[in-house]
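Input for the complex:
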Amino acid sequence: MAAAVNVDGCNKMIEFRSVNKWYGDFHVLKDIDLDIEAGQRVVICGPSGSGKSTLIRCINRLEEHQQGEILVEGEVLGDNPVANALIRRKVGMVFQQFNLFPHLTALDNCTLGPIKALGMSRAEAQERARAQLERVKIPEQADKFPQALSGGQQQRVAIARSLCMEPDVMLFDEPTSALDPEMIAEVLDTMIELADSGMTMICVTHEMGFAKTVADTIMFMDEGRIVEAAAPEKFFNSPDSARTRKFLDQILIH
Amino acid sequence: MISPHTKIKRTVGALDVVILVLALALGAYVYYRVDTVLAYNWSWDFLPGYFIRQDEQSGSWIANILLIGLVTTIRLAFWSMILAAILGAILGVMRTSTRLLPRLFSRVYVELIRNVPPLVFFFIFYFFISSQLMPALGISDFARNMSPENEKWVSILFGQPKLLENVISGIICLAFFEAAYIAEIVRAGIEAVPKQQYEAGLSVGLSRFSLLKSVVMPQALQKVLPPLANQFITLIKDSSIVSLISIQELTFLGQEVAVSTSKFFETWIFVAVLYFVICYALALLFGFLERRGSSSQR
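Predicted:
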């Protein structure tokens, strides 16, 4: 099925249509409506428990929603595991805790998806993996196991692993939250480079400096709702919602 | 508890001397009882002849029944391990399935076997195998009508063709029994793999099968290697029980030697040493695999 195209000719990458989700009795996502177009770079922020991670985990179906529709490149997400695997190949995901495969070297972490999911030959996949490790600036670590790498290096391998699938959109779930302060910059630099290359990105993060530099839209979530979505300038200087202002005061003062 | 950082003492302390003296005293007492009170007449010289003997006509050395028994036990253990590992892996994966039916089937199988003594299971199961399964598989017909080429391979892999049905019955009994325990070990290993690993695997578009094969199983295997080694050693030892369903392995033939020579101590001590050697060799092999696996991740 071809990607849905809106009137302006822009590709709609991701659409949420009145999405609701509960964890048991806890209403975690409330009536989420959202359009993200190809090339857009969205940063999602908000207090913990506001549903930001859950929202992006719904996009590649690591979480199921109970009401409404989520479309990725025009395809409606459902329960078909084969269809979901196909969608996940187009949606890269970077986790807070890196989640590298501990039994595989950095290079093999990167080649597993292309070989097993895309049916590439080993040589071809390795060539692609080396190119991506080069891109995240750790080609010399290719043959090391994850335990031998620093947190920042592990996260960059994780980014390379996702990029090896040549995804159309990248999801980042608090990618720097588990890192020591001195390693945050190297991961953010990698993400900025990725943004400059035109990748569609959705990033849950508290790094407001990164948000200012990279995002074209910043979304503020609270209690399962998208409270505010605006361009960085407006978001930081004149947000509509009092709650957004309060949140910004809290995080920008420190 | 000994933490990895506790230094293990290498010097001999007062307590070690006391323990050593007590152990030696116990050994001396047992020797005294056997030698003086029981007045046992030790003679070991008949044993080598039952292990390996010289053929009277050709003069060449050929295996006698204890060596044949040892080799049969090794064959029995080898094939049962492979079959039990395959069955156990399948049952273990079924135990972790999200569907009810595979989970239920596997659970029932494991519980039935775990709660019945091995010998009782073998008696029941062997009756079914020998009376129903073996004729259905046509093993004895196959053994009788083999080509010489096939016969050579079957002899190497399973031993004498005329005992093929006997050995295969033993293999199947043992494998089905041990598979239940291996299933539990595999299940524990799979459950020990963090759910984030599943998410990472799914995120790069792996199918459920690839996820299991390339992400979950290799990590689960690393975690279950020590209990798996333990189970395989148990399997070798349990293989002596199948002597009671007339499988002609080491214990069965040891019994024949012991009875026909009346040299019970010598024969059984010798048989025990043979078991010890194969079990300990397997333990060393697994120890090596474990160290190699854990060092490869540094």
